[in-house]
Design brief:
The complex is a heterodimer of chains A (about 400) and B (about 400). With about 400 residues, chain A is an alpha/beta fold. Chain A has helices spanning about 20-25, 60-65, 80-90, 135-145, 165-185, 195-200, 205-210, 255-265, 290-305, 310-320, 330-335, 335-340, 380-390, 395-400, and strands spanning about 10-15, 30-35, 70-75, 95-100, 115-120, 190-195, 235, 240-245, 320-325, 345, 355, 365. Chain A is built from 14 helices and twelve strands. In chain A, the strands form three sheets. A six-stranded parallel β-sheet of chain A has the order 3-2-1-4-5-6, sandwiched between helices. In chain A, strands 7-8-9 form a three-stranded antiparallel β-sheet, with helices on one face. In chain A, strands 10-11 form a two-stranded antiparallel sheet. In chain A, a hairpin with a 6-residue loop joins strand 10 (about 345) and strand 11. The longest helix of chain A is centred in the middle third of the chain and has 23 residues, at about 165-185. The model of chain A has no long low-confidence stretch (mean pLDDT about 95). Chain B has 18 helices and twelve strands. In chain B, the strands form three sheets. Chain B has a six-stranded parallel β-sheet, with helices on both faces. Chain B has a three-stranded antiparallel β-sheet with strand order 7-8-9, covered by helices on one side. Chain B has a two-stranded antiparallel sheet with strand order 10-11. In chain B, strand 2, helix 2 (about 65-70) and strand 3 (about 75) form a beta-alpha-beta unit. Chain B starts with 10 loop residues before the first strand and ends with a helix. The relative contact order of chain B is 0.14. The mean pLDDT of chain B is about 95. Classes of the chains: A alpha/beta (about 400), B alpha/beta (about 400). Chains A and B meet through helix 2, helix 4, helix 5, strand 6 and helix 6 of A and helix 2, helix 6, helix 7, helix 8 and strand 6 of B. Strand 6 (about 190-195) of chain A pairs antiparallel with strand 12 (about 360) of chain B, so a sheet runs across the interface.
Chain lengths: ~400, ~400
């Protein structure tokens, strides 16, 4: 039942920024241990919570980002804690740690094997002017530039209601770790990997951030594509909203023709519109707006009477680009995901209720992603790990507990 | 002993367009892989026609986005529909480790370049098929889309915007930024797996399915609590106070502030007037008086510059950052210190500013960032040195339109 990374061993010094990276490695089959402080990882304190009641085993963000892992608790400020950490690092391939510039790493002063890969995650830079900044999801996302690039100018800028900095960070960290593993496969040597949360958060928008140094007109919330004619994207459907793209540039003009054909066939647009050359509106001069506005009005007149699914079907049939605005309920019902076996069954931490979650983020013809274990309860595997992997006796583990090491 | 780059020697064929597939291979290039970008004069990557453009001159030779995504790749021109072009691709496949394509599902089949064909030519090949909904499933065939479509399918569009208005969605083609990380991670994992098994595989990527990953806590909220998450509009968390974005001096200027923890709150109080009330000493007291606290902060931020507020508050231990615009990020000293911005040179465009890698590995810390390739600029080099064609054969195929 091994995955693609079966045999790889990952030690995660658990914090919100490390969770997704370690989980993705676990999804691919790596053996992952989350090392938590005695008060529990900060990741356990992220909302939402089961039934809105918080608790160390009740965070749904924790459960979403920590399946495929085991958990050990450790007080790394003690001699025994440091000894355990050292022993674990000797047996594990990579350690993932969120660091605060100026504060020593948990591995500082410990004897680490040369083969160890140490992935370090900072929020801003490691030693630049903002390296000592206090971070938060708000601050990192504000610093990413994304909120100034879109959104209703009459309202404040938009931020996701799900923390995104940790997601971007985690997905970049995976690449750094896998790169270092590939390097080590060549010559047996480990190394340090450095990831910046803020740089990770810029991935979605760097293409427009670079306008800032290009000499080109800079996009603003008011004018996302300066010089181009802005077209309506969001339309009503009987059961919510759909996005329908109107393309006004040569490469995608065929898609607009398909859209027009649909509207004409459905009787909401006159046949004369079939002859319009939509690419003629791509130039940044005052364009003849009438045809485009007519098109937008016709789209809404039709879509507002159709369901999201009908519109999707029409898009495939006529060859235009439309997408239903789905919510989590829509996603769980979308048969397409079931065909692709995207959902995997796991259980909740509290109550052991069976749930299906969209775990297979890629579909592979070999060694598919599986959920081998649900997210761990706090310190759930401490005894198992210390006795089985570090050959301690039950007496010793109990002693560590009574002394507040675990 | 100097270290070689992690993926040095790995050959990747990138047949993708725009961002989702090409960004994945950019990551691989930054890890040292040899990435060969396939285009043809008749079918150039449409990304070349998208801005930013150097100095605002719209010219397919001058797209900075194109260069930022395709940095470090070699350009080979192949007409996939020409019989000799198709043969050339297969000869290239025999020498490659990875092939990434982003065609609308169905197209690879019609070009005889789907995994079924390619794996017979090279059973060790790792093939990525990247599309909005993936290469299989009810809605796969014929569904075209972009990162905005991906955002709609994955739940992101629904979650971004105001409760009383239609959804706005995240800025830009959001899943174009999410999917490539998962794609590249799967590729590197598959290459490692191949070391053990000797076999390649098909990695079928749906942009929509990768997008859901960044929203998993919201999915679990639905699956466990039975509550469908909705748009909130207002920034910040209902569990933190103060936390949000506040208007600053100037047109559409904002600063993000999270002063909810003790240290941040005490710092904020030393700077912003009107927060002295002892009711606000406790978190619960602050949560119950959120409106008054936000009003006091807004009165302060409205008369100050966003970057000034950021510095002043960070200096007293409060998490804060201006809501940065492209021009602010151009001057951000921390990004400069990180060597994020790189200057590259292109024969037609001259010097331009692009971006460096997303990660830094200590044994190979210097990864130069160069311009993306011109169409076919390395056709002769790649087809002779890697594939073993003679120079004469390549030139003949170029003249014939197969390799152009």
């Amino acid at each position: 039942m091994g995955g693609m990374l079966d045999g790889l061993r990952v030690l995660e010094l658990s914090s919100p920024s490390t969770m997704l990276a370690a989980r993705i490695l676990g999804d691919f089959g790596a053996d992952v241990i989350a090392v938590e402080p005695l008060g529990g990882s900060k990741g356990r304190r992220l909302d939402p919570f089961v039934d809105d009641i918080p608790g160390l085993d009740r965070s749904l963000a924790w459960q979403a980002l920590n399946y495929n892992k085991r958990s050990i608790s450790l007080n790394s400020q003690t001699a025994d804690g440091r000894a355990i950490l050292t022993e674990l690092c000797a047996k594990y391939d990579t350690v993932i740690e969120a660091i605060t510039p100026g504060v020593p790493s948990m591995l500082d002063g410990l004897n680490m094997p040369k083969s160890l890969i140490h992935c370090t995650i900072a929020q801003f830079s490691f030693d630049g002017p903002k390296s000592t900044y206090r971070a938060s999801d708000l601050a990192i996302m504000a610093a990413s530039g994304a909120p100034t690039l879109a959104g209703n100018i009459k309202r404040p800028p938009l931020f996701f209601p799900v923390p995104q900095a940790i997601m971007d960070t985690g997905s970049d960290a995976v690449l750094g770790v896998l790169g270092a593993i590939a390097a080590r496969d060549q010559d047996g040597l480990g190394q340090k990997v450095e990831i910046s949360a803020r740089v990770a958060a810029m991935t979605a928008t760097f293409a427009r951030i670079l306008y800032g140094q290009s000499g080109d007109v800079i996009p603003t919330r008011e004018s996302e594509a300066p010089g181009a004619l802005a077209t309506r994207l969001t339309y009503d459907s009987i059961d919510g909203y759909v996005l329908v793209h109107i393309f006004l540039s040569g490469a995608f003009a065929a898609l607009t023709k398909g859209l027009v054909k649909w509207l004409v066939d459905e009787g909401v647009l006159g046949e004369d519109m079939l002859a319009v050359d939509w690419t003629s509106f791509a130039v940044p001069e005052p364009p003849p707006l009438d045809a485009v506005r007519q098109l937008e009005a016709a789209i809404n007149a039709l879509t507002s009477k159709r369901s999201k699914v009908d519109i999707m079907d029409a898009a495939r049939e006529y060859g235009f680009v439309a997408a239903p605005v789905m919510d989590m309920n829509d996603i769980s019902q979308f048969e397409h995901h079931r065909d692709r076996e995207m959902f995997v069954t796991t259980e909740t931490l509290v109550g052991g209720k069976e749930i299906e979650v969209p775990a297979r983020f890629v579909r592979m013809s070999e060694a598919p992603i599986e959920i081998r274990r649900r997210a761990p309860m706090f310190s759930e595997h401490t005894f198992e790990i210390l006795t089985k992997e570090l050959a301690m006796t039950a007496n010793e583990v109990q002693a560590l507990f009574t002394h507040g090491v675990i | 002993m100097a270290a070689t780059a992690p993926l040095s020697g790995t050959v990747v064929i990138d047949m993708g367009w725009l961002m989702a597939a090409p960004e994945a291979s950019r990551f691989l290039a930054d890890l040292g892989a040899t990435v060969i970008k396939i285009e043809s004069k008749g079918r150039p990557d449409p990304l070349r026609s998208l801005g930013a453009f150097k100095n605002g001159v719209r010219d397919p030779e001058k797209s900075i986005s194109y260069h930022a995504i395709n940095a470090g790749k070699l350009g080979v021109a192949i007409n996939l529909k020409h019989p000799a072009g198709h043969e050339a691709i297969l000869d290239l496949v025999k020498k490659a480790d990875v092939l990434i394509e982003g065609f609308t599902p169905g197209v690879a089949d019609s070009l005889k370049l789907s995994y079924d064909y390619l794996s017979k030519v090279n059973p060790r090949l790792v093939v990525v098929s990247s599309s909005i909904l993936g290469a299989s499933g009810t809605y796969s065939k014929g569904t075209s889309g972009f990162g905005t479509s991906g955002s709609a399918f994955c739940g992101a569009t629904h979650l971004m915007g105001w409760p009383d208005l239609e959804p706005e969605g995240p800025a830009g083609p959001w899943t174009d930024g999410v999917a490539p990380r998962f794609t590249a991670a799967a590729v590197i994992s598959a290459l490692r797996y191949r070391q053990k098994t000797g076999r390649g595989c098909l990695i079928d990527v749906s942009q929509a399915e990768t997008g859901i990953q960044f929203l998993m806590p919201a999915y679990f909220e639905y699956a466990v609590n039975g509550h469908v998450p909705q748009r909130r509009g207002v920034a910040g968390s209902p569990l933190r106070c103060p936390s949000g974005v506040y208007p600053c001096k100037g047109e559409d200027r904002w600063v993000a502030i999270d002063g909810s923890d003790e240290e941040g709150w005490l710092g904020l109080r030393t700077i912003v007037p009107g927060l002295e009330n002892s009711l606000y000493d406790t978190l619960v007291g602050r949560l119950r008086n959120r409106v008054d606290i936000d009003n006091a902060i807004t009165a302060f931020t409205r008369i100050h510059e966003a970057d000034e507020i950021e510095s002043i508050l960070q200096a007293v231990g409060t998490s804060s950052h201006q809501v940065a615009r492209p021009q602010d990020l151009a001057a951000d000293p921390d990004l400069v210190a990180q060597d994020y911005y790189r200057t590259a040179i292109d024969p037609v465009m001259g010097e331009f500013v692009t971006r460096g890698p997303q990660f830094r590995l200590s044994r190979t810390p210097t990864v130069p960032t160069v311009a993306g390739p011109r169409i076919g600029s390395s056709t002769i080099e790649v087809m002779t040195e890697l594939v073993g064609y003679s120079k004469e054969k390549v030139e003949a195929l170029q003249a014939e339109g197969a390799l152009s």
